[in-house]
Design goal:
3 helices; mainly alpha
């Protein structure tokens, strides 16, 4: 049972050539960048003269990083 449980945490990271902790670190970094983009977009919604390209630049950066990992 414990081996089956362990596979729940390791199968996906292994499928893309990463360890559990490497995958966790990348996912945490990715999440922080998404949160930054969301915050910039929210500020931009209210004050359109601020962060005019920040959210789209971050999304483009994230897409490129994920695309390179394939």
């Amino acid at each position: 049972m414990s081996a089956r449980l362990a596979r729940l945490f390791t199968d996906h990271p292994a499928s893309i050539g990463e360890s559990y902790f490497a995958h966790m670190a990348f996912a945490a970094w990715f999440s922080s960048r998404l949160a930054t983009a969301a915050a910039a977009a929210l500020v931009h919604a209210c004050l359109p003269f601020l962060f005019e390209t920040t959210a789209s630049r971050i999304v483009r950066e994230l897409y490129e990083r994920v695309d390179k990992r394939r």
